[in-house]
């Protein structure tokens, strides 16, 4: 019976080949990869579907900023083992992880994908809202979902990866800066079941 669980370090060796099988070696040239360059996926929102030791699917979410001010998530990639596609694994992974993202308080989720598939989860066109990617993208496939009603109001602009901010080097961090870093690390801590 397939199970959805948090991604663990040992899953990495199965995830990369799965992504190669689903998207091919040119996947790194996609604009979505450019957005992800300076950031890392959120551990609390990185999930895999497994059956025993076998990895069947992966999904990750990345912290981004829209128009320099609005925090959001970039969903992707999601990939299901090619032999097992069309059996509901993708829908299950989407539904469960979108629920967790909402519970964690995220308001907006962006992705690049087929609207015919993602509209069932509440995704709509993001280019219509003035969202832009930092490189070429088929605007029809740039999608966004509100996890909280009104979250899209007055939000538009360039989508950028949100880098983990470090205090400038060469001096001791102030007490306030230290507390901010500790709070940020606490927000990144995986839930107890991870
Ligand atoms: C897209 C993907 C994640 C969907 O997962 P899945 O487990 O195959 O899909 P599910 O079984 O949950 O859902 C299947 C349904 O979605 C439809 N569907 C799947 N991919 C679709 C697409 N790209 N566009 C439109 N509909 C699609 C199927 O036709 C099927 O419809 P039906 O139930 O009416 O027959 C998976 O097919 C995959 O990994 N594809 C290759 C990688 C990819 O394209 N990832 C998404 C890019 S971000």
TrEMBL record:
Q: What name is this protein filed under?
A: GNAT family N-acetyltransferase
* Domain N-acetyltransferase per the UniProt entry, residue ranges: 2-144
State whether keyword Transferase applies: yes
Keywords attached to this entry: Transferase
GO molecular function per UniProt: acyltransferase activity, transferring groups other than amino-acyl groups
